[in-house]
Write a structure and sequence with these properties.
mainly alpha; 8 helices
Length: 202
């Protein structure tokens, strides 16, 4: 059941990302944040509602996910993103690639946005001090929505390797840059987890 939830949550997250990117809606960041929020509330009690390989790796490093579950989670997330992206191309077509004229800025923006997202997830959804709270979904969704507003104009505000794969399918990211997004987001997630483990000893 966990894998089904991860597939569904990532699927709808990418639907929101595709809407925002292809329509260039002024409310795109809000739509992405709200979709993530409701999907986190919907699936948090079943799978933990990661919907992001970087989050999955961080939660595993934090000790809240068995090692055997890591690859199945990531596979479900990527599958959800790919199916969603293919469906978006049928509904809305494809975008036009945004060339990375400033790869260091892109990497910096993606690192900061992903770090913030994973940091918030670990603190509101895995920490003993916030156990049983009812605000975790809103906190996570608002982090992504705010990150999209802050960094969207620099990097596209991907913050998620599965979303990066979808971006390549949707022709929003050059395929050769998907690896850059994947590596930077993963490193940022692991860095957030390492810092969390130093700060929260409980």
């Amino acid at each position: 059941m966990n894998k089904i939830v991860e597939f569904i949550g990532t699927f709808f997250l990418v639907q929101a990302v595709g809407f925002a990117a292809l329509t260039k809606s002024a409310l795109g960041a809000v739509a992405i944040g709200l979709m993530l929020m409701v999907m986190v509330y919907a699936g948090g009690h079943i799978s933990g509602a990661h919907y992001n390989p970087a989050v999955t790796l961080a939660v595993w490093l934090r000790g809240k996910l068995p090692k055997a579950e890591v690859l199945p989670y990531i596979a479900s997330q990527v599958a959800g993103a790919v199916v969603s992206a293919v469906l978006i191309t049928k509904f809305r077509g494809q975008g036009s690639e945004t060339l990375l004229t400033h790869p260091l800025r892109v990497a910096g923006a993606e690192f900061l946005g992903t770090f913030a997202l994973v940091w918030v997830v670990l603190n509101v959804a895995t920490a003993k001090g916030t156990a049983g709270n009812s605000f975790y979904g809103a906190a996570i969704g608002m982090t992504v929505g705010t990150g999209a507003l802050l960094f969207g104009g620099i990097s596209g505000a991907v913050f998620n390797p599965a979303v990066a794969v979808a971006g390549g399918i949707l022709n929003l990211l050059p395929l050769q840059t998907v690896a850059l997004y994947t590596v930077v987001c993963t490193v940022a997630g692991l860095a957030a987890a390492k810092l969390f483990l130093k700060v929260d000893k409980r």
